[in-house]
Amino acid sequence: MLSEDLIVRRRRVLRGLRQYYDLPFHPIRGEGCWLYDVEGRKVLDAYNNVPHVGHCHPHVVEAICRQVRELNTNTRYLFEPIVEYAEKLVATMPDGLDACIFTCTGSEANDLAWRLASNFSGNTGVITSENAYHGNTTFLDQIDGSSTKARRENPNWWIRVPAPPARQSGDAREDKVAAVAYAGQCASAVAELIGRGHPPAAFYFESLFCTDGIRVPRPGFMGEAISKVREVGGLIIVDEVQAGLARCGTDWWAFQNLGVEPDIVVMGKPMGNGLPVGVVVARHEIVDAFYARDRYFNTFAGNPVCCAAGIAVLEVIEREQLKLNALRIGTLLKRKIEGLMERHPNIGGVRGRGLLLGIELVIDQSTMTPASRQARWVINEMCRRGVLVGLTGPDRNARNILKVRPPLVFDEHAVDVFMTTLDAVLADLPSRLE
Ligand code: PMP
After folding, report:
1. 98: CA distance to ligand 1 center in Å?
2. For residue 347, which of 247, 248, 419 has the smallest C-alpha distance?
3. 223-250, pLDDT tens digit by residue?
4. How far, in Å, CA of 202 to CA of 122, rounded?
5. What's the pLDDT at 368?
6. Residue 432 CA to ligand 1 centre (angstroms)
């Protein structure tokens, strides 16, 4: 009843603002990886990466409250938390990635990364992966490969390369052949941009290619492709908005497992556990070259309260060993999903690392035809039965990958609830769907 009234009021003033599930979901309280809805249902959150260390984590809440009671200003004044947070962040990075600029969102950070890259390289072209989404600013909207909206004409300074293959053979020689072929595609993209008068300033990609349906390149796979961009002065911008901050279980940042050395790293969503924290980390010469010619002030970015939240998130990850948890629980979950494949021919495979997993739904395992309609039915049904899960896909017409990207405090009990629900929902999957 409460929700129905809210739906009407929401529609009246917020118009076309979309909701994720067919049946609106109305949570009113959160704790760990659990949400409680307006009807008192306890719902497992297997999707949201913003409440990274758990919904309403007491340590983060306390840090925010302490700071908001004391002082909240902006980066025009001196204050301790921003320096401490920046120091802590660069300490998680490989050597050389040593300078930070704060933003409020991942979009702002990707947009700023573009300004840094074009300023430093003097180039004007951009390469992204086929289905990439990097944010919602006017610039990023022009290079949005993920969108289902009607396409306007693509700018001639933007080109797309395919994401790395979803499945790699595991055979070193075959993987090498695939990497060389991939580098060839990047070399062609670079040549094409040069031909159009726009040599690349940047190659943007997500470490785990989430919006391309989750791809996990083997260590070294991207190396040659990257060198094709660097040869003409282009910079490598790695977008860690979804995969970063210990989610993949082995390192702080997902790119560290790819053997990639980015020039610029972009962070967002999970950084403040819900407070708006976006960050660009880059080599200091890139940042210095930018400040020498340009300036960046963002009223709310890097304010003391947001930085206090960011520091508290890093502390919780360390104290509660959440990187290890992501690896342990993510591996367990992946193994259990693989175990379901025999009973459910609609599961074509599961891929990802740590607590970022994609479950590929197919019509059947022999043809591997994407089961997009079925996937949408599954996420709606999972939500109805008390588990939140998301959807992504290798192209805008085939969103058939269930995206599992929960808070890092996901535990064995959560795995059991997830598996029982997925199993039951797949068993009830209608054979025909309109
Ligand atoms: N990059 C990636 C990979 C994202 O998934 C998103 C958000 N979905 C963004 C950038 C943009 O972040 P924000 O919504 O905070 O602007």
Report:
1. 23
2. 419
3. 999 999 999 999 999 999 999 999 999 9
4. 11
5. 92
6. 34
Each residue of 165-199: pLDDT tens digit? 987 777 888 889 999 999 999 999 999 999 999 99
Nearest CA to ligand 1 atom 8: 135
**In this predicted structure, what is the pLDDT of residue 150?**
64
As a CATH number, domain 2-53+321-433 is: 3.90.1150.10
List every span in the chain annotated with CATH 3.40.640.10.
Answer: 58-319
What average pLDDT does range 367-396 have in this prediction? 94
Looking at residue 317, its amino acid is I
Q: What number does the ligand 1 atom closest to the CA of 206 have? A: 3
Which protein residues are within 6 Å of ligand 1, measured from CB?
105-107, 110, 133-136, 206, 210, 239, 241-242, 268-269
What is the pTM assigned to this prediction? 0.97
Going by CA atoms, what residue is nearest to atom 16 of ligand 1? 107
- Examine the pLDDT at 149 and tell me if it is beyond 80: no
Question: Is 1's pLDDT higher than 80?
Answer: no
d(CA 300, CA 296): 12
Which residue, 234, 100, 166, is CA-closest to 370? 166
Query: How far, in Å, is the centroid of ligand 1 from the Cα of 34?
Result: 23
User: From the CA of 367, how far away is ligand 1's center (Å)?
Assistant: 33
Mean pLDDT, rounded, of the chain: 96
C-alpha of residue 340 to centroid of ligand 1, in Å:
31
- CA dist 191 → 142, 171, 201, 224, 430 (Å): 21, 30, 13, 15, 48
With a cut of 80, say whether residue 72 has pLDDT above it. yes
pLDDT in tens, 260-279: 999 999 999 999 999 999 99
Which of 11-45 are b and which e, b meaning 16 or more Cβ less than 10 Å from the residue's Cβ? eeeeeeeeeeeeeebbeeebebbbbeeeeeeebbb
Asked: is 58-319 a CATH 3.40.640.10 domain? The reply is yes
